[in-house]
Amino acid sequence: ISGQSCPHTAPATLSATRILLLLLLATFPALAQSLQACPTSHSMSGSKDVSASINDRMNLELKGWFTETNEMWKGQAMAIKVEEILFEGSSDYQKVGVYKTSDYGNMMTLDGVIQSTQRDECAYHEMIVHVPMFLHPNPEHVCVIGGGDGGVLREVMRHPSVKSAELCDIDSVVIEQSKIHLKHLACGFDDPRSKVTVGDGMAFIASKTAQYDVIIVDSSDPDGPAGTLFGEKFYKAVYNALKPGGVVCSQGECMWLHTPLIKSMLDFCGGLFGSTGYAYTTIPTYPSGQIGFLINTKESGRELHKPIREADDAFIEGCNYYSTEIHQAAFVLPEFARKQLGIPRRKLA
């Protein structure tokens, strides 16, 4: 700019980095103001100062946003714009939050982790319920471990064969707040076929023997009060609680993030149950936009991607995600996951 030639001076054309910075400043005026307000000693003086400066500027733009970070998905975050805090509090087990969001409807979080939003909960609740339910010829007695928001129970009650559905969740606050703020999920609690127990899921299922046709484990992640629901001891109790021909489907974490955990569960379940498999669904507000399901049957030789009963048109009309075709496709994993989990390729018929 001074007019003196220098062999090390950058060319006059704007670099990609400078263009990006200018676009950011034009898009976010608050960022430009914060840059102007920063003292010169704060700029580029060291990695720690730079990080602090970046965080300060980001926080200016993230006010009014719920931001999810967790050690189980290091190096990434999810942010949802919040219009109103409907509830924030702590139970005996975890922090519970319910928020009205700008684009995802009402949202529940546990210990700062998103559990459900109105916009995309169908992808999780329909799949964790209808995949195992359509793998059973006549599911009459169903157990739900966890699932205190009521979404799983709502979907279970769509099956006319069901005579009873027992739900056991450890946290009464989750159930209470769902009934107040998540009525679209909690409607299943009003069905006379349902029975709710507040207590420890492990102790509850361990007290049952050959009682259920289908068991659905709708747990939060294993770094909280649901940790015992991911171990071999729990699945031995589940096996004993199932009737002959019974099916269990569990929240199975994310193939992009948790393949060692998933592999260990597949291994010990494979040695316990007759048939074991892994399916998945896509859901925007869960880590990496995906979550899986660990599915086991007492009966050997089952092709889990093939429903025993096929949902009729009227049933599918009431779904937003599940279909017979989605059921079949959900067991086809990307090659990286299939290889890491040791699942054989399924040849085309």
Task: Write the topology of this structure.
Layout: H1 16-27, H2 29-37, H3 47-62, E1 65-68, E2 78-90, E3 95-101, E4 106-110, E5 113-117, H4 121-133, E6 141-146, H5 151-156, E7 164-169, H6 172-181, H7 183-186, E8 194-198, H8 201-206, E9 212-218, H9 232-241, E10 242-251, H10 259-270, E11 275-282, E12 290-297, H11 313-317, H12 324-329, H13 335-341
Helix pairs in contact: 1-2, 2-3
Keywords:
349 residues; alpha/beta; seven-stranded mixed beta sheet; five-stranded antiparallel beta sheet; 12 strands; 33% helix; 24% strand; globular; disordered N terminus
Q: If you had to describe this structure to a student in words, what would you say it looks like?
A:
- With 349 residues, this protein is α/β, with parallel strands linked by helices.
- 33% of the residues lie in helices and 24% in strands.
- It has 13 helices and twelve strands.
- A seven-stranded mixed beta sheet has the order 8-7-6-9-10-12-11, sandwiched between helices. A five-stranded antiparallel beta sheet has the order 1-2-3-4-5.
- Helix 1 (16-27) packs across helix 2 (29-37) and helix 2 packs antiparallel against helix 3.
- The chain is globular and about 55 Å long.
- The termini are far apart.
